[in-house]
């Protein structure tokens, strides 16, 4: 009887066969269910689509560990994503090993492949995230020599529990208010430049000790994200507050929802320009989005979001709206200059 040798091999999700992409999608779906058993399951077919997506101006390198020569069963997968135009010192990693195949060295092998790729691409910093819903993730990060750089509180909101009186109060605007809301799922062409500009307000959010620079957003990126979201089976309602005196977008909020996982809504970014803060725009945006979700996202029950613990202002708004702690998420970074793996 021979023992099969499991090896880390390059994997190109775009060029790969549909069955190989689906095998990785199945791995990601099963791993997510293991970590979050109470969540609506992710469809392997959708995960297989997501791994093919690359933002304009970025590149991605993938590796996999297969249980068969036909590549129909993936035991581990990892990706390294990095920009070709900004933050040229950094890259972001994702790594998953099937729950039944952990503690056998597969994760270490995948991490070594990522490290070699990062060095080859001139990257000296790799970031990745773990959740306390999977304590083994933190232990693995520490074995890699990673340092925790930013800790976020993951919170959850019961949509049915929010008082209408609170939403009424937060959506009430003063007479002569110069701001108006726009609701989009696909951002119109004449707003793309303004949307890119307001998206970069997220550069003012706390980054903890993450050794990364401000990011840039372009209209081409936004349009690509719109297409990726649609291809992945999600909708992304976005509310933007326009200052009618200047046409500038002063703030925005976005959520992500899939009819296939209808109970769960993910809150994306919420940001208000520093010069426009203190006028209740953040509360207005959040409350208006809750009302939109209640009507236009059938069977949605909860909203989940991440906030850096040091982001006191946004945490106050979320707590007042009814968000309660659900988990902890940590952003880690590995400095590669002197490391071998």
TrEMBL record:
SUPFAM superfamilies noted in UniProt: Acyl-CoA N-acyltransferases (Nat)
Q: Which UniProt keywords apply?
A: Acyltransferase, Transferase
Q: Which Pfam families match?
A: Acetyltransf_1
What are the residue boundaries of the N-acetyltransferase domain, all occurrences included?
Answer: 1-169
Q: Which PROSITE patterns match?
A: GNAT (PS51186)
Which top-level group of life is the source organism from? Bacteria
Protein name, UniProt field: GNAT family N-acetyltransferase
């Amino acid at each position: 009887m021979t023992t099969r040798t499991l090896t880390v091999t390059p994997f190109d999700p775009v060029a790969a066969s549909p069955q190989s992409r689906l095998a990785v999608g199945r791995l990601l779906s099963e791993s997510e269910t293991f970590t979050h058993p109470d969540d609506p399951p992710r469809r392997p077919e959708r995960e297989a689509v997501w791994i093919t997506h690359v933002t304009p101006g970025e590149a991605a390198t993938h590796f996999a560990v297969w249980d068969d020569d036909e590549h129909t069963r993936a035991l581990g997968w990892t990706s390294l994503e990095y920009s070709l135009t900004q933050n040229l010192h950094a890259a972001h990693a994702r790594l998953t090993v099937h729950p039944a195949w952990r503690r056998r060295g597969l994760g270490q092998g995948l991490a070594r492949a990522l490290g070699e790729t990062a060095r080859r691409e001139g990257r000296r910093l790799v970031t990745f995230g773990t959740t306390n819903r999977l304590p083994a993730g933190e232990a693995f990060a520490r074995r890699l020599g990673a340092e925790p750089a930013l800790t976020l509180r993951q919170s959850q909101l019961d949509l049915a529990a929010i008082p209408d009186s609170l939403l009424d109060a937060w959506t009430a605007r003063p007479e002569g208010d110069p701001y108006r809301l726009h609701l989009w799922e696909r951002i119109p062409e004449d707003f793309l430049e303004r949307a890119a500009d307001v998206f970069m307000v997220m550069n003012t959010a706390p980054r903890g000790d993450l050794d990364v620079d401000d990011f840039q957003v372009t209209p081409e990126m936004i349009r690509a994200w719109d297409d990726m979201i649609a291809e992945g089976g999600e909708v992304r309602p976005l509310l933007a507050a326009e200052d009618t005196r200047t046409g500038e977008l002063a703030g925005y909020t976005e959520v992500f929802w899939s009819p296939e996982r209808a109970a769960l809504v993910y809150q994306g970014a919420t940001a208000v320009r520093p010069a426009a803060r203190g006028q209740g725009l953040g509360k207005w945006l959040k409350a208006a989005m809750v009302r939109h979700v209640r009507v236009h996202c059938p069977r949605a029950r909860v909203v989940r979001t991440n906030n850096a613990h040091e982001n006191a202002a946004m945490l106050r708004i979320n707590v007042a709206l009814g968000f309660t702690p659900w988990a902890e998420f940590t952003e880690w970074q590995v400095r590669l200059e002197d490391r071998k793996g």
